[in-house]
Amino acid sequence: MVEVKNLIVPVYLNQKIVFDMIAMLQGGIAKVTNINMINQTKDDVNAKAGVSLGSLLSLLNIGFSGEVSGSSGKSTEQKVGEERVHTPASLFYTLRNLLYKNNLLKVDKDDFHPNPGDIVEFEATLKRNPITETMNFLVALSDLTTVFSDEPHKNTKKKSGTSDDQTRRQISKLSESLKSGNSTDLTTGELKCKYKAVVTIEIQYLNDPLMSDLVDGKFHVVGKIIRVVSDKSEAINLLRETTMSKMPTSVLDKIFRGLSTLTADQELNLPDITVEIQGPVVHIIPIAIFA
């Protein structure tokens, strides 16, 4: 069962999808809620009250006001007007509950059989794309090597075309060719349903673009399945959206074998370079990732 009552802390939230789904389920999004109440009392009442909440709550567009008047033995009328505006996280919280109550949210468990189009929630440890993580590290390492090198101090005129310069240029070009716009892949281990997952996120919806808060920790993922690979005869290619996806397999194997050897020789603590995630695996467009 989904613990829909637990409060959540999103580290990734695609607000556009959340707004669209809420509108689909409710026939639009209601922005203003007006509440009128009538109370009965025997006490003398003659008071007016108003509250101004200052700048902090005004940022959330929330206000309260009230007025009470009357006399002994007569009915009194209390009118309350309020305007409520959701935050993106609270709106997703509402969406998640709606999906669950309408049986539209599937939950990862032993007997779950994923299908394209399912909206699913699962818990997993997420890892960055091992290829891009390795390349980003090598680029940063080459930059640091340049900064701390003694060569600039020995020669005021640095020679161009040295072996180190050429290696740095090759690494930088290779890293650029691996970028696929504003999206990147995260991967998981085996889920309860015995499938692995490739989760394609858009960088703009991350709390931290460097994804430091996604390292070391289990997170819940809610998203829509767009592809299901049922067995090991197929795989999801982590280079599918890059320019390198058009290169022959033999060339790619040679490149990544060289990178694996380089990282092993330097005793670097980097993930194994994997180009494909073999089935069974699902490809997911996430709505939210949260703790």
Kindly describe this structure.
It is a single chain. It is built from seven helices and 14 strands. It folds into two domains: 32-84, no CATH class; 122-290, no CATH class. Residues 40-69 have low confidence and may be disordered. The strands form three sheets. Strands 1, 6, 7, 8, 9, 10, 11 and 14 form an eight-stranded mixed beta sheet that branches. Helix 1 packs across helix 3 (88-101). The protein starts with 9 loop residues before the first strand and ends with a strand. It is an alpha+beta fold. The radius of gyration is 28 Å and the shape is globular.
Throw out a few tags for this protein.
291 residues, alpha+beta, globular
The ordered H/E elements are: EHEEHEEHEEEHHHEEEEHEE
Q: How many structurally independent domains?
A: 2
The total count of strands amounts to 14
The poorly predicted ranges are: 40-69
Topology record:
Blueprint: E1 10-13, H1 15-26, E2 34-40, E3 46-50, H2 54-58, E4 63-69, E5 75-83, H3 88-101, E6 105-107, E7 119-125, E8 127-128, H4 130-148, H5 151-154, H6 163-177, E9 183-187, E10 196-202, E11 218-229, E12 235-237, H7 249-265, E13 276-278, E14 281-290
Parallel strand pairs: 6-7, 10-14
Antiparallel strand pairs: 1-14, 2-5, 3-4, 4-5, 7-11, 8-9, 9-10, 11-14, 12-13
Write a brief structural summary.
By secondary structure, this protein is of the alpha+beta class. Helices cover 30% and strands 29% of the residues.
